[in-house]
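Section 3.1: Structural characterization of target chains.
Under the original work plan, the team committed to producing a structural model for every single-chain target entering the pipeline before any wet-lab resources were allocated. The record below documents one such target. The sequence was received from the expression subgroup and is listed exactly as submitted; it comprises 73 residues.
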Amino acid sequence: MNALAHTAYTTILGLPLVFWIGTLSYVLLAITVGLMVFLKRGPKRLKWHRWLGAITFILATFHMLLGVSAYFG
């Protein structure tokens, strides 16, 4: 867990990796919701919505793991 905590606070452009993963997760969540709210109905929309939802879930889980590792690592 210590290696994961070290990775979480590796800086990229002056900010820790955990910040960038969290920001990317939030942006993907907004895009996923936007697909369902702003686009017309269609099978492609639902396909993209499912893929983006799955990717968002994986990134958010990784973000949580990085954040928790700082306290338990």
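The chain has a mean pLDDT of 87.
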